[in-house]
Amino acid sequence: MKKFFLITLYILNAIIVGVLVVSAFSGYISPQRFVFFSYLGLLFPFILIGNIAVFIVWLLFKQWKPVLINIVAFCICGGAIYTYCPLHAKTKEIPADAIKILTYNVMRFNNMKKDAPKGDPPNKILQYIKESDADIVCLQEYGVTDNSSNYLGVDYIINTLNNYPYHYIPRMKYPFRNQIFDLAFFSKFPIVAFRKVPYESAYNESFVIELDIKGKRVTLINNHLESNKLSEEERSNYYQLTKDPDSQTLDVLTQTMTKRLTPAYKTRAGQADIISQSIEENKNPYIIVCGDFNDTPISYARYKIKGNLRDAFVDSGFGLGITYNKLRFLFRIDYILHSNNIKSYNCTVEKLNSSDHYPLWCYLQLK
Fold first, then answer.
1. Any idea of the CA torsion for 168, 169, 172, 174, to the nearest 10 degrees?
2. From the CA atom positions of the chain, what is the Rg in Å?
3. Does residue 89 sit within a domain?
4. Which of 60, 80, 137, 359 is placed for a possible disulfide with 186 were both Cys, Cβ 3.0 to 4.6 Å?
5. Are residues 202 and 274 in the same domain?
6. The predicted structure's pLDDT at residue 146
7. Where a domain ends, among 84, 117, 137?
8. Edge-to-edge strands of the sheet including 205-213?
9. Which residues pair with 137 in a beta bridge?
């Protein structure tokens, strides 16, 4: 009986380990072919925690064969684990020629409110950007074209960010409004050229900006990829479920979220393919790709766009680097990627709670 019980446990352990390995490499498979693997990538941290718990149990019971199997699995998945949670100490001395880049989904500057409560400075997001001392700022969910006395307008924002002599704010068509601004660039370096990445989307876009940085030609791609379009009610249901788990609520929410996530995964895959092609066609010696990918570190979108680029947070960040912060959807979905001839320093997620995203910044040295 004991032997049968152990064999059963070994089989279950093999299954759990197998799921971990598959989830670690799930980002290589396009959801346009098999969307199932995208969900495994989403669940990677939870699967990893489950494997660590099982590993500890085997250690306590001194079952060395499954312990060895788990260790081998952790080694195989080492790249994915490191990608999800790098551990780098801060660099105290930043090279003098390094530039600072900031990417931030500003959630329409917290719904475009111009003034904060009495006693607070004007719009905290706008104030943060102005005081960040970043050389390049890439924004997503920038805001609408309204100019009024009560809400932030384009002119007001540009005038406030007057420490950036160069900016580019592309307009896009919106299904139920004439025009909206989704992306924005602010730079202390001259903008040489710009163009849209040619993928179709009603709500999202990517733009290529060419910059002259101290005589070096740099391609910068700012992205806001397809969101999962979860309603406020669905997000709230998820939050309540994390507080008070209930099997019936879980079943309903799982079905609802699947209907939302599956088409979003497929749409982002198509966008990522086109962005990847734009990266491959780049003729400039340096390239930086950043923005809100709306997907986790173990995802096809991030894998495809990254390609041969470096991930600044993986190279110089610390911890999970969670950039989305509302209702316990705690994931890193904002990125700064760059070519191999650029070195990153101190990639940091700033805990500023004014938007549903945290700002992400780092120093980049163009070698």
1. 170
2. 22
3. no
4. 137
5. yes
6. 53
7. 84
8. 191-196, 205-213, 216-224, 286-292, 334-338, 310-311
9. 102, 186
Whether residue 138 contacts residue 220, with contact meaning beta carbons closer than 8 Å, is answered with yes
> What tokens does 278 get?
């734009």
Mean pLDDT of 308-328: 92
> What integer pLDDT is reported at residue 101 of this predicted model?
98
Residue 351 maps to which CATH number? 3.60.10.10
Distances (CA, A) of 231 to 131, 216, 294: 33, 44, 15
Confidence of residue 165 (pLDDT cuts 50, 70, 90): very high
Taking the CB of residue 57, how many other CB atoms lie within 10 A of it? Answer: 14
- How do strand 136-144 and strand 342-349 relate by DSSP bridges? unpaired
Beta-sheet strands, E only, within 39-130: 99-105
**Using an 8 Å Cβ cutoff, are 365 and 98 in contact?**
yes
Is 338 part of any domain?
A: yes
pLDDT at residue 119 tops 50? no
Tens digit of each residue's pLDDT (9 = 90 or more) over 168-214 = 988 765 555 555 678 999 999 999 999 999 998 878 999 999 999 99
314: containing domain: 99-232+236-366
**Three-state DSSP class for residue 202:** coil
**d(C-alpha 299, C-alpha 304), whole Å:** 9
**Helices 2-24 and 64-76: crossing angle, nearest 10°?**
10
Q: How many domains does the chain have?
A: 2
- The pLDDT of residue 230 is above 90: no
**Residues 111 and 252 occupy one common structural domain:** yes
Residues 218, 318 within the same domain: yes
